[in-house]
Amino acid sequence: MSQHTTPGHSRPELTKTQKFSIAGVATLGAAALAFSLVPGSADAGTGDVSAAPVAFTQNADAQQSVHAGVAKQQTNADKQAKDAAAAKAKAEADAAAKKRADEQAAAKKKAEDERKAKEAASRAAARKPVYANNLDGWIRQSLDIMKAKGIPGSYEGLHRNIIRESAGDPNAKNGWDINAINGTPSVGLLQVIQPTFDAYHVEGTSTNIYDPVANITAAANYAADRYGSMDNVNSAY
Prior knowledge:
By secondary structure, this protein is mainly alpha-helical. The protein has helices at about 15-35, 45-125, 135-150, 155-165, 180, 195-200, 210-225.
């Protein structure tokens, strides 16, 4: 049996397709409303909603600035530490190099001084005459000493008086003259008594009155004082 509706008091029932369409429109409307509340929207509402992101951005910038400053300070500190370490290493290297150079210079100078000393000693040894251990050598050595001390005399004058006084015997001793009687015998090549030898002994020669060179040099010094030179003596003196 057909159904009838009263006009103006009833509406047709919605189909399933129409219900889905209405739900979709509602969903899109909610999404649009939510989007309109996103910060920065012209329709966002009160100022509190849009101010929060601005404050967050400012804080983030400040933190980034602080981090950047700390990082820069750390970089500067690291650079200063590296520079200080490099400067210290260079100073130590320079000091070590200077020490080595000073040691090498000192060693070189020492070696040079030793070389010069050896050369000087060698030259001195070469210049130093070698005297024979006989009457000729004794006279020549005595003459060199006399020359250095400014004592006059010649080879001939010394040799002549030596031969007369002792016949060239350095151990000759007079035991019979007045000097011997007085307890101071004349001895040696030029027959010198001890008091005379002591008074006219020449520095650098032996203190032994029987030493040939010391005896000749002391006698020549006495003769120079008394006679002007041994060359002027031709008899007992």
